[in-house]
Amino acid sequence: MKEVVSFGDCLQRQLQRAGMSASEAARLVGFRSRNSMFRILAGDTSFEVDSRFLQSLRQAIGDGWPAECWAELETALEIKRVGLEQYQSDLAFRRAMFEQKPRQEYYVETKWRGGEEKLPLQVLLKMLAEDARLEVVITGNCSRDVSLLLVQALGEHGDTDRVHIRHYLDISGRQVVHDILGVLPLLSKVWYNARLVDEERCPPQMAALYRVSVISVMQLRDDGSCVWHELLQYDDANYSTGSPARMRGRYSCCWTGTA
């Protein structure tokens, strides 16, 4: 997010960019006194006054100012209306709902089909889903990027009832709002089931496990056999199904095996 400034400071910046004085702006919107304009610039007016002023200024200038100038003023005005914290929360919600491309790639170090590879997480999940039905259990992994990746990798199979996800969400900390916003792309999917874990009702050791970012995948094959894959995240962009040594001391239960 760009530097946050008050509506008055943002307006002053736009006037300077346009080479326009406060007196000229006051005349454009029909102010009889320059004092009204100076009060807006000083931040001494209400949201309603600033909103009416911005509407009048836009009608007077229109395309004379670039679109990004009006966007900055609208943002500053909205922050004044709801407060910075609520504005940032609303912005995160809109991104989670409407931005449909992950901004970060995730990779898995794995032994797959006889050789060691580093595969994109999305590719590996698609390969697993193509081979069998999947029962997936997730802890941690509450970022919006991971949620979008799961939708893209497994959504087609989930819609045909070949994938089911249970996701355990820790709601005991201050991170809960961020986590719930992060999983919004998944919440409307019938193949996704979120389960809330409250630290007060859960043994401490179990609560700690629920905070570890793990994607556990059970492949249920048509012949009745099943294969279990456990993907543990060991840094911001990488998972592993390899030896515990690769986990750099963070986790010790990394394995892939047959159930």
Tell me what the structure shows.
Mean pLDDT is 83; it is low at 242-259. β3 (133-139), α8 (144-159) and β4 form a beta-alpha-beta unit. The longest helix is centred in the N-terminal third of the chain and has 16 residues, at 67-82. The relative contact order is 0.11. Strands 1, 2, 3, 4, 5, 6, 7, 8 and 9 form a nine-stranded mixed sheet that branches. α2 (22-28) packs across α3 (34-42). The chain is α/β, with parallel strands linked by helices. The chain is elongated. It starts with 6 loop residues before the first helix and ends with a strand. Helices cover 46% and strands 21% of the residues.
Labels describing this entry:
46% helix; 259 residues; 11 helices; elongated
Summarize the structure.
With 259 residues, this protein is α/β, with parallel strands linked by helices. Helices cover 46% and strands 21% of the residues. Strands 1, 2, 3, 4, 5, 6, 7, 8 and 9 form a nine-stranded mixed sheet that branches.
Structural class: alpha/beta
- Between the first and last Cα atoms, what is the distance in angstroms? 47 Å
Strand tally, please? 9
How much strand?
Answer: 15-25%
Q: What is the helix fraction of residues, given as a range? A: 40-55%
Total count of helical runs of at least 4 residues: 11
Q: List the secondary-structure elements in sequence, H or E.
A: HHHHHHEEHEHEHHEHEEEE
Which radius of gyration do the C-alpha atoms yield? 26 Å
Q: What do the pLDDT scores average to?
A: 83
Largest sheet: 9 strands, mixed
What's the overall geometry? Answer: elongated
Unreliable stretches (pLDDT < 50, length at least 5) are 242-259
